[in-house]
Design a protein that fits this description.
The chain contains 13 helices and 24 strands. The protein is an alpha/beta fold and 417 residues long. The protein folds into 2 domains: 205 residues, Enolpyruvate transferase domain (UDP-n-acetylglucosamine1-carboxyvinyl-transferase, Chain); 206 residues, Enolpyruvate transferase domain (UDP-n-acetylglucosamine1-carboxyvinyl-transferase, Chain, Alpha-beta prism).
Length: 417
C-alpha cells in the first residue's frame, strides 16, 4: 500500500502531456472481440483498469501483447464467453464484453459489474436493448446470461442517456442482421471514437455524437487499428490544478471541443484559458470567483469533474453550489475536504461551498477515483503537508499523476504507507 504526500503552496508551471482516455480505450479493447483477427490500439495509458481489461481478454481466449503504449489483441478464436466475478467486480466497464460476445458468439455470461462505490449504476438499459435485438436474458447467481442465434436489428429507445448502454448496443448492432436505431443515445466524445473505430472495421454507422444513431448491420468486421483520443477528464484535472495554484500550464492534448462546459465554468471562476495548436493553456487567477455547477450528461458538466471542481471552489471568494444529478453517492470526498479546512455543507444531491482563504494540510483518505484527484488538488493548494491514503483508486484512471505534477513544480511523492 502507498500514499501520496504533498507539500502544498507551490504554483504549477510548464507543460504536461495528457495520456490516452481510459473511458475510450476500454470499449475499444472489447470491440476487438468483434473481429476474427489481430487488432492494434495505440496511445493506451498504463492504468490498472487497462490491465484488468487485458486480463479479461486473455481469459476469453484473445491473447494480448503490449509494447510501450500499443496493445495488440488476437481475437481470431474465442475460447470462453464468461467474464468472471473476480475481474468484473473491480471494473464496471467489463460489462462491455456482453455486446461483442453476444454478437459474435451468440452467447455471453458476465458477472454483474462493480467499480467505484459512487452509487447504483444499473445495467437495465443494456439488457432492455439486447432483448429488443432478440436476445434471451437470464439473471442467476450474480451473473447476466444472454443468448441469441443471431441478433436482429431493432428500434431501441433508452429511458435516459447511458454511456455504457450506448457503447454495448453500438457494438452489438454492428453485427446484427438489418437496421437498428438507438434513440436517446449518449453523446460523449468517447462514443464518437468508438463509432469511428467500428466504421474503420467496416461497420455502417451514422449519427454518433447525437441522440439518434443509425446502424446498418454487417456480416463481419475487420481488425481494428486506432490511436486513442486524449483523456478529457485527466486534462480537466490538470487544468483545475493550474487554476488552483495560480499556475501557468500548457495541457498538451486537451481539446476544446471536449471541454466546453468545464471551460465555461473555469472562465467564470477567473481562470484565463487559451486554445493553442498543442492543447489548452491555463493561467490561474490571484483569487478564484464562486461558480455554481450542475452535473449532467454530455455536453453538460461532467460528473467525473465534479469533485475536482468542488476542491477549486473551496478556495473561491464567495459561495458556490454544486448539484450532482448523475450519481446519488458522489459527495464522499466532502468529509475529507473538510479535514483540510473546506467549508462545505450537503443537502441531498446539492452541496454549498463557502470559500475559505486557505486550506491546511492533513491526512485524508480517498474513497473513489475522482475523489482521489480532488484531494490531491486540494493538497497542492493547501499550506503544509497533505497525505492522501488509499490511492489504489487513483491508479485506475490517472497515469503516473505524481510524476506529471512533480514535473510542473509540485512537491509530491508516492511513498509506502
Amino acid at each position: 500500500m502507498h500514499k501520496i504526500v504533498i507539500k502544498g503552496g507551490l504554483p504549477l508551471n510548464g507543460e504536461v502531456q495528457i495520456s490516452g482516455a481510459k473511458n475510450a480505450v476500454l470499449p475499444l479493447l472489447f470491440a476487438t472481440l468483434l473481429s476474427a483477427g489481430q487488432s492494434e490500439i495505440c496511445n493506451v495509458p498504463d492504468l490498472r483498469d487497462i490491465d484488468t481489461a487485458l486480463s479479461l481478454l486473455k481469459i476469453l481466449g484473445a491473447p494480448t501483447a503490449r509494447a510501450e503504449d500499443c496493445c495488440q489483441v488476437d481475437a481470431r478464436t474465442i475460447q470462453s464467453v464468461e467474464a468472471p466475478y473476480d475481474l468484473v467486480r473491480t471494473m464496471r466497464a467489463s460489462v462491455l464484453v456482453l455486446g461483442p460476445l453476444l454478437a459474435r458468439c451468440g452467447h455471453a455470461r458476465v458477472s454483474l459489474p462493480g467499480g467505484c462505490a459512487i452509487g447504483a449504476r444499473p445495467i437495465d438499459q443494456h439488457l432492455k436493448g439486447f432483448e429488443a435485438l432478440g436476445a434471451r436474458i437470464t439473471l442467476e447467481h450474480g451473473y447476466v446470461e444472454a443468448r441469441a442465434e443471431r441478433l436482429r436489428g431493432a428500434h431501441i429507445i433508452f429511458d435516459m442517456p447511458t454511456v455504457g448502454g450506448t457503447e454495448n448496443l453500438l457494438m452489438a448492432t454492428a453485427l446484427a442482421e438489418g437496421e437498428s436505431i438507438i434513440e436517446n443515445a449518449a453523446r460523449e466524445p468517447e462514443i464518437v471514437q468508438l463509432a469511428e473505430a467500428l466504421i474503420s472495421m467496416g461497420a455502417k454507422i451514422e449519427g454518433a455524437g447525437t441522440a439518434r444513431i443509425h446502424i446498418e448491420g454487417v456480416s463481419s468486421l475487420q481488425p481494428l487499428k486506432i490511436s486513442v483520443m486524449p483523456d478529457r477528464i485527466e486534462a480537466g484535472t490538470f487544468m483545475i490544478a493550474a487554476a488552483m495554484t495560480r499556475g501557468n500550464v500548457l495541457v498538451r492534448g486537451a481539446r476544446q471541443r471536449d471541454q466546453e462546459a468545464l471551460l465555461k465554468k473555469m472562465t467564470e471562476a477567473g481562470a484565463h484559458i487559451d486554445a493553442t495548436q498543442d492543447g489548452l493553456r491555463v493561467i490561474g487567477p490571484d483569487r478564484l470567483m464562486p461558480v455554481d455547477i450542475r452535473t449532467s450528461a454530455f455536453p453538460g458538466f461532467p460528473t467525473d469533474m465534479q469533485a475536482q471542481f468542488m476542491a477549486m471552489m473551496s478556495l473561491a471568494d464567495g459561495t458556490s453550489r454544486v448539484s450532482e444529478n448523475v450519481f446519488e453517492n458522489r459527495f464522499m470526498h466532502v468529509c475529507e475536504l473538510q479535514r483540510l479546512g473546506a467549508d462545505i455543507s450537503i443537502d441531498g444531491h446539492s452541496a454549498t461551498i463557502h470559500g475559505v482563504k486557505q486550506l491546511h494540510g492533513a491526512p485524508v483518505m480517498a474513497t473513489d477515483l475522482r475523489a482521489s484527484a480532488c484531494l490531491i488538488l486540494a493538497g497542492l493548494a493547501a499550506e503544509n503537508t497533505t497525505e492522501v491514503s488509499r490511492i489504489y483508486h487513483l491508479d485506475r484512471g490517472y497515469e503516473r499523476i505524481e510524476a506529471k505534477l512533480a514535473k510542473l513544480g509540485a512537491c509530491i511523492a508516492r511513498v509506502p504507507e
